[in-house]
Amino acid sequence: MSVPNAVRYAAVAVWALLGLAVLRMILTLAFKDDLVDAWIEDKAPGLPRELVAQDAPAYVGVALVSLVFTVLLGLAAVNLPNGRNWARIVAIVFAALSVLGIVAAFLAPSLVVLQIINVLMALLSIAVIVLLANAEANRFFAAPVR
Fold first, then answer.
1. pLDDT tens column, 14-43
2. Closest CA to 134 of 18, 17, 8
3. Is 88 within 8 Å of 26 (Cβ atoms)?
4. Which stretches of 1-146 are DSSP H helices?
5. Measured CA angle at 142 (ends 139, 146), to 5 deg
6. Environment class of residue 142 by beta-carbon count within 10 Å: exposed (0-12), middle (13-18) or buried (19+)?
7. What residues have CB less than 8 Å from 21, skipping those under 6 apart?
8. Half-sphere exposure of 135 toward its Cβ, with a 13 Å CA cutoff?
9. Model pTM?
10. How confident is the model over 72-84, as pLDDT tens digits?
């Protein structure tokens, strides 16, 4: 059985998620101070930076953890075209967790470029879930492993 388009597109979307996660991590590391300043300005304007900076979200830690999850998604992407059902489950679960994490990320002040990347990642994650849960993908993953 050939790889259906839904599975092929889902694998491409997972690779795109991986690329965007790497870009987001690089930007987070590069603009860490700007992110903390945005958080301070939103949550505690007027207070000295030294007093409130320690309460800011751990932007770098969150980006690194997100990257670990996305690397696992990459492992799943390699195995999706081979009909590995575990890869489909991993991709769906991590895509759903990605959407939840991105929704939570909008609760903290951020830079516009990071918000745009988060929106793109949320849309790609939703696409992965929809593509891997459709009837065509269900038939493909129900067939014996190639």
1. 999 989 988 988 998 888 888 877 777 777
2. 8
3. no
4. 5-30, 32-43, 49-52, 59-79, 85-105, 112-132, 135-142
5. 105
6. exposed
7. 66, 67, 70, 121
8. 0
9. 0.83
10. 888 999 999 999 9
